[in-house]
Design brief:
The structure holds two protein chains of two kinds. By secondary structure, chain A is an alpha+beta fold. Helices cover 16% and strands 17% of the residues of chain A. Chain A has helices at residues 79-84, 120-131, 168-174, 184-188; strands at residues 98-103, 108-113, 137-139, 143-145, 149-154, 160-162, 177-182. Chain B is built from 21 helices and 24 strands. Classes of the chains: A alpha+beta, B alpha/beta.
């Protein structure tokens, strides 16, 4: 199922679109957790059809959701407010799966909750936004091509694996730590079986 | 709470009785009046040769007396008494309020008022907030900065609302006014952290920097570090709308160096741990606090442990706190930390906090003194019932939708509204988003809350009737205008016929601001309002079947109004042109490039008209998509 990975003029997401997971796994609606909207908006004079989605900028044009045509500016809520109401944090009954994420060359670790994402495309997009880099195009044989970074994780057995090799559910349950590797080390992990 | 100021700015204080300062029809003579005192002693019966001397005495006396006049309505009235009073009033007016930046030019304003210390300037029409006004429409601050730089050496305060402000403007403002003290930007855009950095580094006397619901571009500039080193006289720093990461160490230093700081509102990139550190420094002095994210940081420096957070005692030192907001990424488990301050709070803003009824209850139970409460509808009707049970002093309530779409669930309804009306009789202002409403509940509120000044009800699905009876919402809104004798601001929604407007015209004698969307049947609706509401100042209408006949029925009224906005109604180019011809001091703007392609008498269904009085010629900075009639 073809699906654009949404907004963000600067990332050319179509080119790096990833499709992972078991055959028949549903691709879900993209919900970016991180707001990319506050880069200077392009001088876009059009009055766009607006969805009530999160993380959208006033100036960006979007496709309306198929269900019902949204009317511009209705209900009368400022975009800022619409975009900033946070999704509910993890319910107490189902605590989030927090893992530390480090990137080679970055001074800070980040922590993310894997439960917030529905699949690899979302997760990788969020990481791209967080650390401001591009992940290459994934293929089983060759790993992540087109970028010097590769996302890797440490699993329950202490092995470092390339992200994307196993089904999503298995991944989030076995991932202990995340590391975005750079350079030759990354390529070394690139061979799947 | 930030909306102390935002409210001041949205209150329409223009009094019908005296023309506002942004427009002077009676003073075309006065415009040419020379300030060299010459012969205004008309009717004094004093010999000509002594008249100039007496003028001076009179001026001195007036000067001393008029200084005490602070209300701008009073000042406007005083300025019309005679030329002498006009002149003295002009030099003693220190607070200048301009409700529409295009109603008067910077040059004219600074020519008349020469000793201004404080400027309030408003730009775009309110519907710009909802993407109904294309980018680049105008309301540029630049010409004002240029003019003020020359004219107002004692200008200390600037409050802007819906203006377009650039980085260069900020820099120029700071450069030309080294003693500048107070900058408040509400719903502004066009600048970024680069401009902020320049501004704060140049303004060494800065007391107040309030950025409220403004769009601030991320130039990846650490603007907090640009505050001057050493002791600061900062009293208020509000930056909760700034969506950029900040340097916390620099912020901590700044707060530590600001012994006069009373108001601090953090953005969502400040974690709860960092908040607690700031409270340790400044907690006892703070009266207004925006908590930032109110959750743990997801940014952990390599090698650092996360310290244990002392939730129980963090707020105990905040004895002065009366206004609390923030909670941008709230983890509700941490809410009990605010128990120590609840009883003192007069203002609480949970409108970014996704909390449910059970999470609200233990908090609101302690908030006996609450007067202002902003919240999301996630608390449901039961949550509103809890508010009604405790908050007997409530003056202002705003309930925002967590899911702002027409077809969303809608967890609040007439039940919540009814409960509030019964529990909070002192209510003056309400903004309520919902999906289901009844005339009965609205009527109940009109009877239970006689002090209502602002009533804004937004039933999110368009044309939605009373969900119990199936009737239009006419009777409910009719009851509001009839029973709430102090009502000055009204926003209507739901299924409404012309009857609702007949009620507004008949009873809404004090109404100054009216917002209409998807309502009415015919031109009569608008006619009722234009003919019936003498105090009308601001009228904004969208997607309602009002056409030229209605538009032309308001000619007697338009010079008394600040503006009229009509979009996606049934106007034609011809109708708009006719208004422009008959009313030379009205600027009639047609917004949207298709107006030119249309025939004169085609109904312009998708386009917008914005019309406002002005003493100037039409503006020259209008973009391509604006046609001025």
């Amino acid at each position: 199922m073809e699906k654009g990975l949404g907004f963000g003029n600067d990332l050319n997401l179509k080119a790096t679109e990833l499709r992972l997971g078991l055959p028949g796994t549903d691709e879900v609606e993209e919900q970016a957790d991180y707001n990319v909207r506050n880069k200077r908006p392009l001088p876009d004079a059009t009055v766009a059809e607006e969805c009530g989605g999160k993380g959208k900028s006033d100036a960006e044009l979007e496709t309306a959701p198929p269900a019902k045509t949204q009317i511009v500016g209705w209900p009368p809520i400022r975009s800022y407010r619409k975009n900033n109401i946070q999704a509910k944090k993890s319910e107490p009954e189902a605590p989030g799966i927090y893992v530390k994420v480090s990137m080679d060359g970055a001074p800070y670790l980040r922590k993310i909750d894997l439960k917030v994402y529905q699949g690899y495309p979302e997760l990788l997009k969020a990481l791209e936004n967080m650390f401001k880099f591009t992940i290459g195009v994934y293929s089983e044989r060759e790993g992540y091509k087109g970028s010097e970074y590769a996302p890797t994780y440490e699993d329950k057995d202490g092995d470092w694996m390339l992200v994307g090799d196993v089904p999503w559910e298995m991944f989030i349950n076995s991932c202990k730590r995340f590391r975005i590797m750079k350079g030759s080390e990354a390529r070394g992990l690139g061979c799947g079986v | 709470m930030h909306h102390d100021r935002a409210d001041q700015m949205s209150e329409d204080e223009d009094d019908h009785r005296s023309p506002p300062s942004d427009l002077e029809f009676t003073s075309s003579e006065a415009r040419n009046y020379s300030t060299v005192g010459s012969g205004s002693g008309s009717g004094s019966g004093v010999p000509e040769s002594q008249a100039p001397y007496l003028d001076q005495v009179l001026d001195n006396v007036l000067d001393n007396v008029l200084q005490f006049l602070t209300s701008r309505q009073d000042r406007n009235a005083a300025s019309l008494v005679c030329k002498s009073w006009y002149r003295v009033e002009a030099v003693t007016r220190s607070e200048l309020f301009i409700g529409n930046c295009y109603a008067v030019s910077p040059a004219r304003a600074s020519a008349r008022f020469t000793k201004v210390r404080s400027l309030v300037l408003k730009g775009k029409p309110r519907f710009a907030d909802f993407n109904l006004l294309p980018q680049g429409w105008g309301a540029h601050f630049s010409p004002w900065v240029a003019s003020m730089a020359k004219a107002y050496s004692c200008l200390e305060k600037v409050h802007l609302k819906r203006m377009s402000v650039t980085d260069v403007d900020l820099e120029n403002l700071a450069k030309s006014l080294p003693g500048f003290k107070e900058l408040v930007l509400v719903c502004c855009e066009g600048f970024g952290t680069k401009g902020l950095a320049a501004f704060v580094s140049l303004c060494r006397q800065l007391r107040v920097l309030d950025l409220i619901e403004s769009e601030v571009a991320d130039d990846e500039m650490d603007w907090i570090s640009h505050f001057p080193e050493g002791e600061s006289c900062l009293e208020s720093l509000i930056f909760d709308c700034v969506e950029c990461l900040i340097n916390f160490q620099a912020l901590e230093r700044l707060v530590a160096n600001s012994p006069s700081m009373k108001r601090l509102r953090l953005n969502r990139h400040v974690s709860i741990g960092q908040l607690f550190r700031l409270l340790k420094i400044r907690g006892p002095q703070l009266t207004h606090l925006g908590t930032g994210s109110f959750s743990l940081s997801d940014l952990v420096p390599q090698g650092d442990q996360e310290p244990e957070l002392d939730y129980a005692s963090a707020f105990t030192a905040c004895k002065s706190l009366v206004c609390l907001s923030g909670f941008r990424e709230i983890v509700p488990d941490y809410l009990p930390a605010i128990y120590p301050v609840c009883a003192n709070l007069t203002s609480l803003n949970f409108s970014y906090a996704n909390i449910n009824t059970e999470q609200l209850r233990p908090i609101i139970r302690h908030c006996h003194n609450l007067q202002i409460f902003w919240v999301l509808d996630s608390i449901c009707d039961e949550g509103l019932q809890a508010v009604a049970a405790t908050c007997k002093e409530l003056r202002e309530l705003r309930v925002f939708p967590i899911d702002a779409r027409e077809d969303s669930e809608g967890p609040v309804s007439e039940v919540g509204l009814q409960a509030i009306s019964e529990g909070c009789p002192k209510l003056q202002s309400i903004l309520y988003f919902c999906q289901r409403m009844t005339n009965a509940a609205v009527k109940a509120m009109s009877k239970n809350c006689p002090d209502l000044v602002v009533f804004r009800l937004c039933i999110m699905e368009r044309h939605r009737p009373d969900h119990v009876t199936g009737d239009p919402m006419d009777e409910g809104f009719g009851a509001i205008v009839k029973n709430c004798k102090k009502l000055t601001r009204l926003a209507v929604s739901g299924l409404l016929t012309d009857k609702a407007f007949s009620y507004i015209g008949k009873y809404g004698k004090l109404v100054r601001t009216l917002s209409v969307a998807f309502a009415g049947n015919s031109d009569m609706g608008l006619k009722y309002v234009l003919e019936g509401c003498p105090r009308l100042q601001k009228l904004e209408i969208r997607d309602s079947p009002f056409g030229d006949v209605a538009l032309l029925s308001g000619l007697h009224q338009y010079y008394n109004m600040r503006f009229l906005w009509m979009s996606s109604c049934r106007l034609t180019r011809q109708g708009c042109q006719r208004v422009a011809r008959e009313m030379p001091h009205l600027v009639v703007e047609l917004i949207g490039s298709n107006w030119e392609d249309m025939e004169m008498d085609d109904v312009a269904e998708k386009l917008s008209m914005y019309m406002y009085r002005s003493v100037e010629m039409p503006r020259e900075d209008a973009p391509d998509f604006v046609t001025i009639m």
